[in-house]
Amino acid sequence: MNAITKPAEVTAPGYGHSYRMPMPRLRLTPDVSHGPLDGAWWPRCDALELELPALVGSLDPSSGTVTRVTVGSAAWPDAPQEVMAPGHVIEVVLTDSAAEAHAITVDCGTVGRWELLVIPPDEPVGVATRLLTAAADAGNPLSAPRLLALAESGLDGQNAWESEGGAGPR
User: Fold this and answer.
1) Domain of life of the organism in this record (predicted)?
2) What are the CA-CA distances from residue 37 to residues 17, 94, 163 (Å)?
3) What is the pLDDT of residues 129-138, one digit of tens each?
4) How confident is the model at residue 155, as a pLDDT?
5) CA–CA gap between residue 132 and residue 22 (Å, rounded)
6) Torsion sign (Cα): 80, 85, 89, 94
7) pTM of the entire structure?
8) In terms of C-beta density within 10 A (0-12 exposed, 13-18 middle, 19 or more buried), how is residue 7 classed?
């Protein structure tokens, strides 16, 4: 699945000036995912209304228009019910599901959807980079909460991931 293009260009309301949104820190599974995750997203802050337009604007338009996202209420307690994205409004659904605690589901209507690990904004760069890579591996068998738990426990995530069925060296 090659869904990353370039940052969206947006015109600021009432100002007539355009600007480029920053590239989201995003990695998607190439082609088809066979695990619980389709990649990972590392937002810069916990304000969904600020972060979501950049994420949506970077997805390949051939993937369809993002119509809805589902996020965990524990991670995004102040999330609005709707977020403006370039050219449309996205419905935000909050859930109490433990599986969604550290994930975001991005729905593109009838075209498809992605289940992404959400890496906490304050995660150190090295840990976030490893999580981005592990979550985007098509052979990753681990859920979002399990990947984050491994990272937070300080265990060697690669060895633990492989011991739980992840792909070994290629």
Assistant:
1) Bacteria
2) 37, 19, 18
3) 999 999 999 8
4) 53
5) 18
6) negative
7) 0.76
8) middle
